[in-house]
């Protein structure tokens, strides 16, 4: 008796109707990522082209931005009077901006981490209120925040003169919200399992925070530091309201004042310096993140915490 082999009938792909792609695209243009990628690249180009132009003009040998000459460092340091390095006003403004940014970062980030740890362990309505206060700087206009701090130092804290001290206090007051929110989100994603495991192995609560929790918080801490520095170095409203003598005016205020008067080509060099400083701090934060989280990326979080 012969066995019969049943084969499925061959099916040929039906020819696609002409114009089907056009109809599908009109019906749902977001079906393929082509449109999204185009919008993304267009947005990046729209955002980066002004920065590229400002950087290019800062190396232009001509005083006018309409005429392009050869590459020159004239407005950076070779010009003896109008360059960024030799102009006394711009030079002091750069130092003041770096001083305010670094000091605010050094003060606000540890305070934000401490607040985040406290809110994470503090339950009740008061903790919810503190968490809501931390969000005020994200929803309130900056001009209202700057004006309110100006009134505080003008009427309530008269013993604090307007200048660097008032600027640092005002900036820290509002910049502390960034590390609180970022570290708080990191704490929620980590959970309390690692701390509890460390305490089960004999560690005290302080040791579990120092040896286990803080290394897990390094990505959030470094990201907070980079954001605080970047947001502080280009802050304008708060530092302008709290500026006292001319020496306390940072680079953002100087650029605004120069732009309103007779513009100097060194302004473009100053703007490029601000951009470069932000990029350098972001790269340093990323490198530190890679160094301090090497154990987590190689052996896993559990092995990293165990080695500590």
Fold and architecture overview:
The protein is an all-alpha fold and 308 residues long. The protein folds into two domains: 28-75, no CATH class; 80-307, MetI-like (MetI-like fold, Orthogonal Bundle), CATH 1.10.3720.10. It has 15 helices and no strands.
CATH topology of the largest domain, anyone?
Answer: MetI-like fold
- Give the end-to-end Cα distance, rounded to a whole number of Å: 75 Å
Strand content: under 5%
Mean pLDDT value: 78
Large-scale geometry? globular
User: Secondary-structure element order, as H and E?
Assistant: HHHHHHHHHHHHHHH
Please tell me how large the radius of gyration is: 28 Å
- What composes the largest sheet? none
**Total domain modules:** 2
The helix fraction, in percent, is: over 70%
Short structural description:
The chain is an all-alpha fold and 308 residues long. It is built from 15 helices and no strands.
Give the topology, please.
Layout: H1 20-27, H2 34-58, H3 74-78, H4 88-121, H5 125-134, H6 136-139, H7 142-156, H8 164-175, H9 177-190, H10 193-200, H11 205-233, H12 237-241, H13 251-260, H14 266-292, H15 294-307
Helix pairs in contact: 2-14, 4-8, 4-9, 4-11, 4-13, 9-11, 10-11, 11-14, 11-15, 13-14
Key attributes of the depicted protein:
MetI-like fold; disordered N terminus; 308 residues; disordered C terminus; mainly alpha
């Amino acid at each position: 008796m012969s066995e019969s082999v049943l084969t499925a009938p061959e099916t040929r792909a039906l020819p696609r109707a002409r114009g089907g792609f056009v109809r599908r695209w009109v019906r749902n243009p977001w079906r393929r990522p082509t449109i999204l990628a185009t919008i993304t690249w267009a947005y990046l180009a729209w955002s980066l082209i002004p920065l590229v132009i400002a950087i290019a003009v800062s190396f232009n040998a001509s005083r006018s931005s309409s005429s392009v000459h050869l590459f020159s460092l004239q407005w950076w340091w070779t010009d003896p009077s109008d360059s960024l390095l030799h102009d006394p006003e711009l030079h002091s403004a750069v130092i003041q901006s770096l001083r305010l940014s670094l000091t605010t970062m050094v003060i606000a980030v540890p305070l934000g981490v401490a607040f985040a740890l406290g809110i994470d362990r503090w339950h009740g309505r008061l903790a919810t209120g503190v968490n809501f206060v931390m969000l005020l700087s994200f929803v309130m206009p900056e001009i209202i925040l700057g004006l309110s701090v100006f009134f505080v130092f003008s009427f309530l804290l008269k013993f604090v003169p307007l200048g660097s001290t008032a600027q640092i206090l005002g900036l820290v007051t509002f910049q502390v919200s960034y590390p609180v929110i970022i570290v708080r989100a990191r704490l929620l994603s980590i959970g309390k399992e690692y701390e509890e495991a460390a305490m089960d192995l004999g560690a005290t609560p302080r040791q579990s925070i120092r040896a286990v929790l803080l290394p897990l918080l390094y990505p959030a801490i470094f990201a907070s530091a980079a954001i605080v520095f970047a947001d502080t170095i280009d802050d304008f409203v708060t530092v302008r309201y709290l500026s006292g003598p001319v020496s306390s005016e940072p680079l953002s205020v100087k650029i605004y004042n120069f732009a309103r008067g007779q513009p100097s080509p060194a302004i473009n060099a100053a703007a490029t310096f601000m951009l470069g400083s932000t990029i350098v701090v972001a790269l340093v934060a990323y490198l530190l993140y890679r160094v301090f989280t090497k154990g987590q990326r190689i052996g896993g979080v559990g092995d990293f915490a165990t080695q500590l």
